[in-house]
Amino acid sequence: MKKSVPIIEGLFEWPSENPRLIATRCPLCGSMQFPKSSVCNNPDCDHSVPVEQCYLSTEGTLYTYTVHAYSLREPFEYHKGPYIVGAVELPEGLIVVGRIKVEDEKMLKIGMKMRLKVDKLYEDNENIYLSYFFEPVVEG
Amino acid sequence: MTESAIVSASIMEWVEAGHPTPLLIDRLAEVTVRALREANLRPRDLDAIITNTTAIPFDSPSYITTSAQHFAHRLAERIGVKGAQCINVCAACASASIAFALADSLIKTGAIKTALVAGIDNSPRGFYLPGQSVLDPDPYAAAIKVIGATNPAYWAMWARRRAYEMGQSVESIKELMALVKEIHSKYGALNPYARYKRIFAAKDVLASPVVCDPLHLYMICATSSGGGAVVVTEMEKAKKITNKPVKIAASTVGGPIYGEPMPRLRVFSTMNIEKPFTEWRLPIEKAYKMAGITSEDIDIIECHDTSCFHTINWIDQIMGWEREETDKLIKNREIEHTGRLPVNLSGGTASFGEAVMSQAFMMIHELFRQLRGEAGERQAKKNLKIGIFTAYGAYGAYGCAILEKAF
Ligand SMILES: [Zn+2]
Hints:
heterodimer, A: about 140 residues, mainly beta, CATH 2.40.50, five-stranded mixed β-barrel, 9 strands, B: about 400 residues, alpha+beta, Peroxisomal Thiolase, Chain A, domain 1, two-stranded antiparallel ribbon, globular, binds zinc ion
């Protein structure tokens, strides 16, 4: 039985029923950092209190995207073209870049509602590698 | 503050990248000697040698510092200098532009009188993939591993967003980018230093395969090997060297800005606070202030066009006008040598291919020749007084300078 492991530790909760992206938040100014950081990134911050780990909203809106037509070469050949890369704006004001999952790319519209999904990126003989994706929220 | 000027500029022919060329330092030394001869200076006259580092992949198994990071020192050794300070600047595709700004600042503050800014790069081919250092396994450097977000993916996302914000179809920005390529390629064909001489029609560009929608293959620059050398001195000295000095009215360096919404190359996230492309615009605004001019004073532009979208966005940011004006300018071919605002008469990176960290040399060289009226068939028809060049690099590296005819 293969193990399911995150492609990189610390990007999202795992194992989890409803995984969220892991970030840090400055308790002073509220600025958020993804991936998580050791310090606040707001130029106005006085850094008197350390940042705390937090979790990001799992829904946002599509800010922009592109269909990447080509596959990448080794060791990233598991990104097989065509695949979609996009940026999703979360209610926190953070714009997060990620792979987009959608049946038909023509469905995608900037401004549409998107939801986080942790899913298989690829597998090898030992593991199933998981990553975060965004997919359109289908209403109704 | 002391005034500064360019007294000579020399570039080499841009060639195909990705092949081992053991003679990089020789090619760099040759182009340097040409620039020194044009200025009638000797290596002993140099107070500083400032070079860009390179995009050449590390070859040292111990990952200790490599020869490709130390061209300033190696060049000093080749040409022989007497106490010139040697500095290697690393700022992705903006490296040479920032090396130039550093030389200018050192002269303006009076720290030095004469600087050589030089560099050569031999880029890897294809999509740039990250290597992970065992000592710095930084997840921030892993956008490709996790997302598959190559450089063109980011450029394509910017292009789509611009079209969206303007209420345009994606097709319309595609057509505009194809026209940019058509125009740039016309001038590349006239430039003896450009690697590509093929003239493209916009429809050829649109017929090439899609790489990252809306970017087609011929809207993205190739990678090349190339470089150049520029001699910068204080104005008083410049006037003794040449009767056609080109004044450096301003030079600025930019960086990533908190709150820039457009995801810059290789980031996972940004904060949506500022107007899109604020970090592109800021070094330009600072340069205008430093030079005491406005966008209306700009006669000619050389901008770093890693993709045809870059040209469009640079015009947006340099002019600071409604983006529809940029579209109109391009569609009316006002960016040609006969137009009211010539852009990339060098042929641009579109025609040169990008010698990644040395790319600014072709822009500086072109502006220097254009302002002196020495650009031959590519010479702008209008009377030129002030030109600007801008560079963009990964991680939010920006460089900008305003050059002015001083004769
Ligand atoms: Zn803070």
